[in-house]
Amino acid sequence: MTLAHYVDTLSLLGDESRLRLCALLQNHELCVTDLVRVTGISQPRVSTHLGRLREAGVVRDRRKGPQSFYALDSERLPVSARTLLAEAARSDDPTLEGDRARLQEIEAERRNGLAEYVPDELERFYSPGRSWQSLAVGIAALLRLGDVLDVGSGDGAAASAIAPYCRSLTCVDANARMVEEARERLATFPHACARVADAHALPFPDATFDTVLLFHTLTYAERPAHAVAQCARVLRAGGRLVLLCLDRHRHQDVTAKYGERHPGFSPRDVRRRLAAAGLTVVTADVACRESKKPHLQVVLAIAEKPEAKQAPPKARRD
Q: What distance separates the 2 farthest-apart alpha carbons in the chain?
């Protein structure tokens, strides 16, 4: 290599962001989405840095579907550059250590099959018609939900996806404007309705519904335990409550502006509240983690209302 080539290579790797990307790509083949999630660098900047690194022969790319996957082209690097990157990969620098830790989290979550990565994998191996939306529609068709109550339904977006698979669908929300939007969205389903109601005082008799949905409502509720108790009250014996909420977090500066009253609920706290309402908890665990900072986690809980116990038969008198 010429002196100019050495200077250009060292100048290229002298940028902190590019050095971080190269350290990650040394032993892994990653796409832009992966690198954005690990480093927190914006997508346009990551793409620009990768373009420069590819032009200089530092990284190579492989196309698969709509995405490109990048890896360090170690054979074309001068020994001095390879030595520098190998040292960076082992460094105890907090930034580089953080990158490695986040990459390990991503790989572990993919191995465990967390739902967060389904859209990424579909995009990674795209074929015509194979999308997250079509997958959701297909899965929804497996449902037989009976009489359903969606508590805190908002504009009815989630409810509209399951409406075809309900015997009846009732959406309630405290926001009148949202209820009106839900009515418009559900207008094509004669068995669906939307009304203004308070989650703390559901206007339905006991044991009215087979399924109750409580999707991202608990963190907005003034009295979460009371809202859960109300949902349990209107469930029929053998009915099921499905709950989604944010995991406990320290980012109220982010969530408070959306009107959330509580900083999420841990799986243990969710289990406790469901059990206190007389429900049998089937599961309550973190189901996914948001890819964008501050990486909020979502808890999925499923609970069932026990069947009523039958009184023992009376003893016969001979």
A: 111
Q: How is residue 46 written in tokens?
A: 């990551």
Cβ neighbours of 208 (radius 10 Å): 17
pTM greater than the 0.70 cutoff? no
- Output the pLDDT for position 247: 92
- DSSP state string for 25-71: HTS--EEHHHHHHHH---HHHHHHHHHHHHHTTSEEEEEETTEEEEE
CA atoms of 162 and 121, how far apart (whole Å): 24
Do the domain assignments include residue 81? yes
Model pLDDT for residues 69-79, shown as the tens digit of each residue: 898 887 777 77
* Segment 91-148, tens digit of pLDDT: 778 888 888 888 888 777 666 554 444 455 555 555 566 666 677 767 777 778 899 9
CB < 8 Å & 24+ apart, contacts of 250-254? 251/294, 251/296, 254/294, 254/296
Are residues 149 and 118 part of one domain?
no
Please return the burial class of 114, using the count of CB atoms within 10 Å of its CB with bins 0-12, 13-18 and 19+.
Answer: middle
Does residue 86 sit in the same domain as residue 62? Answer: yes
Instruction: Based on the fold, state whether residues 182 and 290 are members of the same structural domain.
Output: yes
Both tokens of 176, joined, read 């009148």
CA dihedral 114, 286, 241, 155 (to 10 degrees): -80
Per the structure, the count of domains in the chain is: 2
